[in-house]
Specification:
alpha/beta, 411 residues, 12 helices, 16 strands, 8-stranded mixed sheet, 5-stranded parallel sheet
Length: 411
């Protein structure tokens, strides 16, 4: 059966002027035509019409940094929370992301192969998943869950490798374990983090040679590496090792910006998480050891993102949802505009450009013939009010691969 979306304005993700009176023709799970409604040849076969009701037709959005297994982070969670609860919560988190208009996510840690397959097989509802399984950390680093008391608070189960690895041989083995567990991307903590008990965001972690081992081993499977990186030295180490995706990038100096441009690397700003951490701090809900880091990271991240945008660094949407609440993903687009983007650039950061980072540009990211039918219809004009996309009530229809998962149009 064919689907025909009509009576809307098309923003196809390529940056062209919005096309009024547009239509999108879909067969099975792919787009077979798009353009001015009256110019499209409508087949005589069985067809279902989807009236956009004067709304705006966009590609499904892509969030390049989420944690679907988390709902906030506190060290005591793993002591009191049964393992199965994390998976049940993930089913809700995945649904929330999809209902915001996000049809693809890159999980930056803890979602395993089973979660990915459950979505693919339709056992649970959510965006398509690219997974990193377990972030890699040094001893005492951002994902070492042994506290100064000597107690461990990490979550463990079969299929989830350990995070901690030191030295080139151990790093090599851990990368292979993560890849064996089904990772689509290797995630590494090259600096400390805001919620760390044992370090600070500025602290670099892993040597250049250790990072080069990760990049080389992942490259044997044509897979990328993504780097959690706040401090400037960690950013430089990651880029010099050949890592192409820098997450957070809080303390960027001129050398960092030069390296990002020279290496044609990407920056994932995660502004939503920083805003949420400030809100939590002001509400007294952050531990004492995180408060100053949260304030500093939020302030410096905004400055660094402004500099990076002006310098021409490639940037894409990533929210750190899981640290930030789930279901608010498209608020990030407004924050991208706060650092200098115009609304069309922000939309592309969450569609076409994000697809390029993930290596999925031939399948998703724009509304074009031959692409998967990931389509969102919103009630408001996002070019006039980008923040309106951050309200899920304005997202009327969400389609993934030609299947409608949300439809709140008023008939």
């Amino acid at each position: 059966m064919y689907l025909f979306i009509h009576n809307g304005t098309l923003i196809d993700g390529n940056g062209a002027k919005p096309l009024e009176n547009a239509g999108v023709l879909i067969k099975d799970h792919k787009i077979i035509a798009s353009g001015v409604e009256d110019s499209l040849k409508i087949p005589g076969d069985e067809i279902k019409y989807i009236d956009a009701r004067g709304g705006f037709i966009l590609p499904g959005f892509i969030d390049c940094h989420v944690h679907m297994m988390w709902n906030g982070f506190q060290y005591e969670n793993s002591l009191f929370t049964p393992l199965s609860i994390y998976f049940y919560q993930a089913t809700q988190n995945l649904r929330l992301a999809l209902e915001t208009g996000v049809t693809t996510v890159r999980d930056a840690g803890m979602a395993d192969y089973g979660v990915k397959i459950a979505v693919e097989e339709g056992l649970i509802i959510g965006p398509r998943l690219l997974i990193s399984v377990m972030p890699l950390s040094i001893t005492g680093g951002h994902f070492d869950m042994e506290l100064k008391s000597g107690h461990q608070v990490k979550t463990t189960y079969p299929g989830l490798p350990d995070a901690v690895c030191d030295g080139e041989e151990e790093v090599l083995k851990r990368v292979r374990e993560v890849l064996r567990a089904g990772a689509d991307v290797v995630k590494v903590m090259v600096t400390g983090g805001v919620i760390s008990a044992n370090d600070s965001p500025e602290h670099p972690q892993f040597t250049l040679k250790e990072l080069q081992v990760m990049v080389e081993e992942a490259s044997y499977r044509d897979l990328p590496v993504m780097a959690h990186a706040h401090g400037s030295q960690g950013v430089k180490n990651a880029l010099n090792a050949g890592i192409k995706s820098i997450e957070h990038g809080t303390y960027l100096d001129e050398e960092c910006l030069d390296l990002l441009l020279e290496n044609d690397a990407w920056l994932v700003p995660t502004q939503l998480a920083h805003k949420i951490n400030l809100e939590l701090m002001e509400a007294g809900k952050l531990p004492d050891f995180s408060k100053e880091d949260a304030r500093s990271v939020a302030i410096n991240s905004h400055r660094s993102m402004e500099k990076a945008y002006k310098a021409g660094v490639k940037m894409v949407m990533g929210t750190d949802s899981g640290i930030a609440p789930h279901g608010q993903n498209l608020r990030e687009l407004g924050f991208l505009c706060d650092i200098g983007m115009n609304p069309m650039e922000a939309i592309q950061a969450g569609t076409k450009r994000a697809a390029e980072l993930l290596g999925l540009q031939d399948k998703i990211g724009t509304i074009e013939t031959g692409k998967l039918a990931d389509v969102v219809i919103c009630a408001t004009n996002p070019l006039r009010d980008i923040n309106s996309l951050g309200n899920p009530d304005n997202i009327l229809v969400v389609m993934k691969e030609g299947k409608i998962f949300k439809d709140i149009r008023i008939f």
